[in-house]
Each structure stands twice: as C-alpha cells, then as structure tokens.
Amino acid sequence: MNVTIVEQFDENKATFFAKICDKYFYSSELLTFCFCIFTTFQIIFWLFNSFLLYIEYNDIPSIDQYRLQKHKPKLRFQPDMIKIIRNGIIRHQISSVVMLPVMYYLLNAFGHVSVTGPIPSLFTIVWQLSIFILAEDFLFFWTHYLFHTRWLYKHIHKKHHLYKQPIGVVAVLADPLESLFQNQLGIWLIPILLKEKHLLTLCLWILIRVYQTVNAHCGYDLPYISTQYYLPWLMSGTLAHDYHHQHGKMNYGSFFTLWDRLMNTHKLSKED
Ligand SMILES: [Zn+2]
Ligand SMILES: [Zn+2]
C-alpha cells in the first residue's frame, strides 16, 4: 500500500520529459533528448518561416513597410530557388538526425545532461542561457570573420551567401564545414563543457538560437518581435545581417553588435 502511494507520488512529480521518456521512448534518455531538441528546432523554424512565407506571397502594406530591400521586388521563390532551398533543408534535417546522438554523447562525456531529472531553478536556467548566448556570440563572430577570408569564403562560406536578399529559410544554407565549425561549435561547445545541464535549458537554448537566425535572415525590420527592436545599439539582428548578405561583408556577429563595433565592422542598411 505504502509502495503504491510512493509510486503514485513519484509519478505525479515526474517532469514532462520523464513522462514522455517512459511512455513513448522505451525509457531511453538518448531518444528523448534527440526527439525534444529536433522537435524544438522544427516548431520554431517552421512557425516563424510560415509567417514569413505568408507575407512573402501576400502584399500587406502595414507589414511590407518594414521590408528592408524595397528597391528590389519580392523573391517569391523561382523554381531553381525552391530546389536549392529544399535540398538545403533536407540536408540540414539529415545532418541533425546524425549529429544529435553524437551531441548527446559529448554532453555526457564532459558532464551530465539531465533528461528525466527535476527541472532546474529559474536562476540556473537564466545564467546558463546567458553564458550560452555570450559564448556563441563570441565564437560565431570570430569563425564567421575567418570564413570571410578569401580562401575560406570562396571554397566554403560562399554557399551561404547565395542570396543577397535573404529570407528566413535560407538560414540553413551552409557548407557542412561551415555548419560544423561556425554554427554547431558555437551552439554546443559551452553546453558540452558545462558540468550539469538540463534538457529543458537546452531546448530553450535551441529555441532562442533558431529564432535569432531566422529573424536575422527574414528581410524585415519587424517591430516587437525582432531582437533589434529592443536595445538597437546592443542587439544585432535583421538590419545587420541583411546588410551582411546584401554586401557580402561587415556585421559578422550573431546576437550582439559588440565584436563588430570593436573590430570596426558594424554597419546597418539604414545608414546606406
Ligand atoms: Zn557571411
Ligand atoms: Zn546569413
């Protein structure tokens, strides 16, 4: 009787992740981790991009006023563009499925990723996310800066710069080497080195990073939902990255403008 009460109590206390781990993933923490990170990416990527695709095909003056490269017509996906982006997205999805088990192994090799354990305090989540963001911004800036040196640009980074007028879905276009050393390294290095991390914090981190990159490529300086709308002096975002794609130089940072200001590579479209 007592055991039943304890079991019932534990069942009630189990987190969402622990419940789905037991119910759908044969109690495999690896499968639960891969599913949750992959699904977080898909939800935020496709939600944001569905909105962007909707405004791409529908002229809504109240939104179109925020479009950045107004001197050019909307892209509205030509057949060759659909093929390139579709292939880029498929490649990205396949590489995510292959990469996530490796990340799970690395996250546990240098520390411990808690999948079914109790949810960390808000304070822990906030300080860990802050460190992830600051470290990613540093790593992204310097690797991106390097990828703009002549040889690396020509052989690797040029693929990402295929479109001078970016839209959200082109965020995933990248050479595998760029994807590994510029994107994945910045996202995962600190979580791997951190001793104790929770799946919830990692899902939130993926959500923030994917939102940031789709926003950077969206082509609209949208109020309220864009990072650069808040603290425009500090936050990088669409204005900076759109300029970067349009001119193939300047604004190498991801979250903040600090490294660009320090290296004298900060310039915005509105200052043209
Ligand atoms: Zn670039
Ligand atoms: Zn880009």
Automatic annotation (TrEMBL):
Q: Which UniProt keywords apply?
A: Membrane, Transmembrane, Transmembrane helix
Q: Where are the transmembrane segments?
A: 30-55, 94-113, 125-147
Pfam families registered for this protein in UniProt: FA_hydroxylase
One GO cellular component, as annotated: membrane
Organism equals: Didymodactylos carnosus
Q: Which GO terms describe its biological process?
A: lipid biosynthetic process
Q: Where is the Fatty acid hydroxylase domain?
A: 131-265
| One Gene Ontology term of the molecular function aspect | iron ion binding
| Subcellular compartments | Membrane
According to UniProt, the name of this protein is: Fatty acid hydroxylase domain-containing protein
Specify the superkingdom: Eukaryota
| Entry-linked PANTHER family | STEROL DESATURASE (PTHR11863)
